[in-house]
Amino acid sequence: MFEIPQITEGIYYVGVNDRAKAKFENVWPLYKGVSYNSYLIVDEKVVLIDTVDVCYSDIFFYKIDLILKGRPIDYLVVDHMEPDHSGSIGLLKQKYPDIKIIGNKKTFNMLNGYHGITENLVEVEEGMSIKIGKRELSFIMAPMVHWPEVMFTYEQHDKVLFSADAFGTFGALDGHILDKDMDIDKYWYEMERYYACIVGKFGPFVQKVFKKLQDNPIEIDYVCSTHGPVWTKAHFSEAMAVYDRLSKYEAYEGACIIFGSMYGHTEILADTIAQAIAKKGIKNVVVHSLTSSDPSDILRDVFRYKAIVLGAPTYCNNLFSPMEHIIHLIELREVKNRYLSLFGSCTWAIQSIKKMTALTEKLAWEKIGEPVEMKMAPTPEVLNKAAELGEQIAQKLIEDRK
């Protein structure tokens, strides 16, 4: 018999899956889709937590109608105004004209800007609470995780934290909703990729929220993010650890080599460096071609590994443009505490090293070894220098073990 999934009795999952969209934010590939999670609390008052992308509003409202059977929704809580979660608010207001919308001051500025809604607003601040029957909702401000209006909502009776995009992942929900019921392993890669692409710049703000939760502890049995699985005690500590590590910019021992190559000569240097690192006993070595690896996968590994090695040819007396782009994406995310090494190539005018050096200055990463420069095809001398650079990178990683 068909049933709308429940998190606990009276708290329903009314989210939707998107397996049609090719790219999240029209930038980041969705290899396995994405979910837009929304939750309906049925008590003396009916409360909806966030909505979904407007493209899926028909499925969304159908689910709500099956649960409520004509009963109105009293409150909408807006934890996050990004359109993939707020896109259906205008239609929701048309369907339930008397609905009251709960949010903070920054929420309402965006609500007016996106939907022209200025009435029936209930403004909340840190620590405020609203009783809805046997349940009571309280609010935790979480600005810049990853928009300025973001807040969390805590439902005290069932110990549920509605966490907006925090602890979110890429990946549709394939049948299961709760982490404890599914094979969770497939989501860890997508969580790290989601964090690196979407939340990555805002690590200090994630840490501020973590400190707030530590200083004012609440008992949590369920964490309901707006993307991905609902977390329970089965795996939430692991999800929390991932977000904690990434938001501190902590890295695993390993090297991420990112290269561009037009005809294969620069790639030979990348492989030579990788082999030298591996030969010294470093297990985690990943090599990304800027031609075939998506930037989202590259960013994930920049967040994941301590040593970052960049290599590219000169192009039109400048830098191979895909390299310039990935450096820009890394800089935007303000990734900290990495080691940096460079290599480059040309036929007649070596500009790539000079350009990469200038572009990476703002990163303030510790430089390992001298850049390796190659003119035209690799020679034994150049390959030896590349191997020496790899050995220096590996040695630095090994020293960190002490």
TrEMBL record:
SMART domains on file: Lactamase_B
Flavodoxin-like domain mapped to chain residues: 255-394
SUPFAM superfamilies registered for this protein in UniProt: Flavoproteins, Metallo-hydrolase/oxidoreductase
Cofactor(s) essential for the protein: FMN
Taxonomic source organism: Falsiporphyromonas endometrii
Superkingdom of source: Bacteria
Coiled coil, from the record: none
Pfam name, any one: ODP
Similarity comment: family membership: In the N-terminal section; belongs to the zinc metallo-hydrolase group 3 family.
Designated name of the protein: FprA family A-type flavoprotein
